[in-house]
Specification:
Layout (H helix, E strand, L loop, with lengths): L8 H4 L8 H15 L3 H17 L13 E3 L4 E9 L12 E8 L6 E3 L4 E9 L11 H4 L2 E8 L4 E8 L6 E3 L6 E2 L4 E5 L3 E6 L13 E2 L5 E4 L1
Antiparallel strand pairs: 1-13, 2-3, 2-12, 3-11, 4-10, 5-6, 5-9, 6-7, 7-11, 8-10
Helix pairs in contact: 2-3
């Protein structure tokens, strides 16, 4: 059976997350006002508004069908792979586990997705600095939101949203006790950031340093 190509408007214009609506409306309003006095400023603001729209784009993703697959929570580049104990605020012990860090530039999709099906067992928000998110010390010094999740198989893992150099707001969509599906949206970070994943004990890393990641689809490990 063949599938006809989709030439509809939706096929070429990416969907925007609701978090971005007010920013686009503000940009559009300023564009109209400034365009009345200067075509140049109006044009520049229109371009900027378009960039904001693209920043908040929220494309659909198709998680892998294989049970136990742990996917990347963010679009971007793997900037660090190491062994480190989960953040102490999550009370998951001090045994080092494999950690994969994904850096998001301002050009990446910034909607974050749950790495694997399970229940959010603890969340914690930590105010902090706004260092370059690609630096290792950003995981301890920067503003961040922490999540502990128990998988359907009973394993525990953690993932952390870290604000970056120009990021000024971490947005979370989930709460403790909430059941999540693999690839389900759990939050976003505005304007450049990073997400760290602390894999369950014994789970090996299946990605490489510098690899491009697709949130909700790229497999970084398997239970």
């Amino acid at each position: 059976m063949t599938t006809k190509p989709d030439f509809s408007f939706k096929a070429y214009i990416p969907k925007m997350h609701p978090e971005g609506v007010k920013f686009v409306l503000i940009g559009a309003g300023l564009t109209v006002i400034f365009a009345m006095f200067s075509h140049l400023f109006g044009f520049l603001l229109a371009v900027l508004t378009g960039c904001v729209y693209l920043f908040f784009r929220d494309p659909e993703r198709i998680p892998p069908e294989k049970e136990g697959s742990i996917v990347s929570p963010a679009d971007g580049i793997v900037c660090l792979i190491d062994k480190k104990a989960p953040p102490e605020e999550l009370d998951m012990g001090n045994t080092p586990v494999n950690r994969v860090c994904v850096f998001m530039s301002v050009l990446n999709v910034h909607v974050n997705r749950t790495p694997i099906k399970g229940k959010i067992i603890k969340t914690y928000y930590h105010p902090g600095k706004f260092l370059n998110a690609s630096l290792d010390k950003a995981s301890e010094d920067n503003e961040r939101s922490l999540y502990a999740l128990e998988t359907a198989k009973g394993n525990k893992m953690a993932f952390v949203q870290i604000a970056g150099l120009v990021a000024r707001r971490i947005v979370s969509f989930v709460k403790e006790g909430q059941d999540m599906e693999t690839g389900e949206r759990f939050g976003l970070i505005r304007f450049g950031s990073r997400v760290d994943v602390y894999l369950p004990k014994g789970v090996e890393v299946k990605v490489s340093l510098g690899q491009t990641m697709i949130a909700g689809e790229t497999i970084i490990g398997e239970e």
